[in-house]
Structure formats: structure tokens, C-alpha cells
Write a structure and sequence with these properties.
signal; 6-stranded antiparallel beta sheet; 9-stranded antiparallel beta sheet; mainly beta
Length: 270
């Protein structure tokens, strides 16, 4: 594993929340992918073939997931997001949908989100389609692929002097493709949001041929760091003859099998 020395200004040292930057749920408890959920509406027919929605209930969530809705062609509270405290989240938006409106209900976990899209048919809301996306780079993916073997990253070293990220690329690609990875480090800022660590990026490195599974890693070294919460970001590229044919980005997640060290979604430095 390669090592990179990173100096952090003492002025940036401050107390940070322990855990995911957007939720009080333990970081490793947040699922990697949002599971299928159900949506029910309290609604009635509106004017000109539209619908008036007074309540949106989302069931099948995991605590800590971000859940919300957004509506195009609507009047009222057209966009709301919350952090689920349990398996159910209820919104009461008093939303007026025109006949051409589109309503999206979304649940977002660590690396993958799920969206259900509804449209108005005969003054009623009907499910139009369901889709899944990646969180880090907002790419559309097959929902079945969120449960299949896929690239992953994890925090495997966590000390006041060293923070390490480990990543793996699955097999299944072409032997003519090469998988490369680059590692970035993020920390929670005073507002509880994730921000890039200055100069906290590794060079690109080759993991191996895409038809086999490989792991690689990078360790960032610090001087005088305390009171911080870090997470890692791994960027992957599948390359052939100097061209990039596919990209993926993953946040660090727990429970991975690594050659050395542990496996966590974050690194907390007291």
C-alpha cells in the first residue's frame, strides 16, 4: 500500500460530529443500497384532471436513509427531504399536481439510491417507472446491479497518524481492459457536510485486468490531527488501449474482506 504524507493546518482542527455527516445513525449501520420501498398517497381529484395530495407515506426504509420527494408541474411544497428515523416517513405537503405533473419519491443510502416516479392518469397517481442511481456521481444503474458484486471501497486504517482506504474491483470484465483507481479523502466541515481534504488525493494506480478481482489501497499520513471524522472516495476507470470505457465512484462502506486492517465506512479520530 502506498503512503502519502499530508499536512493539515492546525487552524482547521475543530470538534466534529461523530458519525455520518447527514444523520445521527451509526455510520456503519447505513445500508449500501436503498431497498425497494412502498408509497401510499392521501389524495383527491383536483381541477382539470389534476390531483391534490395531502399526505405521502413511504414504507420499507432503513434508519439513516435520506428520503424525499420532488414534483415537476406542481403547486405547493414541491420538494422536501428528510432523514428517516425508522422504516416509515410521512410527508404532508398539500401538493397540487396538474395533469402533466411528474412526482418523484426517492430513498438514498450510502452508495445507491432508488426512485419511484408517478404521473397523473384520470385524476389519480399511477406508478410510471422505478430506477436506481449511484450517489457519488449520479449515474443510472440497473436496480438488480446494486445487489450484485461491484466495485467497493472501505476504510482499513484509522490512527491519528495514518488513514488508509482499500478498494476492490470485481471480475467479469474483459481481459483486454485494465482497472485503475484513485483515492480521495473527505472530512466533515463545521456545518456537518462532507468536504474534500486539501491535497487529499492519490495518483491513479492500476489494480489489474478487468476479468479478475483485484484489491489496492492508499494510506494518507498526517501530522497533529485530532477531533476529525473522515471518509474515503474511490474512483474507478476501466481502460482499453488508452481509452476510458467505463467509470464508477464509491464511498467507503463497512463489512468488506480486506488483506490487512479493518473495514469501516468512516475513520473517527478523537
Amino acid at each position: 500500500m502506498r503512503v502519502f504524507r499530508l499536512l493539515i493546518l492546525t487552524a482547521l482542527a475543530f470538534a466534529l460530529t461523530v458519525g455520518d455527516a447527514r444523520t445521527a445513525v451509526a455510520p456503519d449501520a447505513l445500508p449500501d443500497a436503498a431497498a425497494p420501498f412502498t408509497v401510499t398517497f392521501a389524495a383527491q381529484a383536483g381541477e382539470s384532471g389534476g390531483v391534490v395530495v395531502t399526505e405521502i407515506t413511504v414504507d420499507g426504509l432503513a434508519a439513516g436513509e435520506r428520503v424525499g420527494f420532488a414534483c415537476q408541474g406542481c403547486l405547493g411544497q414541491t420538494s422536501v427531504e428528510a432523514v428517516a428515523a425508522g422504516t416509515r416517513q410521512v410527508f404532508r405537503p398539500k401538493l397540487r399536481l396538474t395533469a402533466r405533473a411528474r412526482l418523484q419519491v426517492r430513498a438514498t443510502a450510502r452508495n445507491f439510491g432508488r426512485v419511484s416516479e408517478y404521473r397523473v392518469v384520470s385524476s389519480r397517481l399511477r406508478l410510471d417507472r422505478e430506477r436506481c442511481t449511484t450517489v457519488a456521481d449520479n449515474r443510472s444503474v440497473r436496480c438488480s446491479a446494486t445487489r450484485a458484486p461491484r466495485p467497493w471501497a472501505t476504510m482499513n486504517v484509522c490512527t491519528p497518524e495514518r488513514v488508509g482506504i482499500r478498494a476492490a474491483s470485481p471480475s467479469g470484465g474483459s481481459r483486454r481492459q485494465t482497472v485503475a483507481a484513485r483515492f480521495k479523502l473527505q472530512y466533515t466541515d463545521p456545518g456537518g457536510q462532507w468536504a474534500d481534504v486539501p491535497n487529499g488525493s492519490s495518483p491513479w494506480m492500476t489494480l489489474g485486468a478487468a476479468n479478475r478481482s483485484f484489491q489496492g489501497g492508499y494510506t494518507f499520513e498526517f501530522t497533529g490531527v485530532k477531533g476529525r471524522t473522515f471518509r474515503g472516495v474511490a474512483e474507478f476507470e476501466w481502460r482499453r488501449a488508452g481509452r476510458v470505457e467505463r467509470r464508477a465512484t464509491r464511498f467507503t462502506s463497512p463489512g468488506r474482506t480486506v488483506a490487512s486492517g479493518g473495514s469501516s465506512s468512516v475513520c473517527v479520530i478523537p
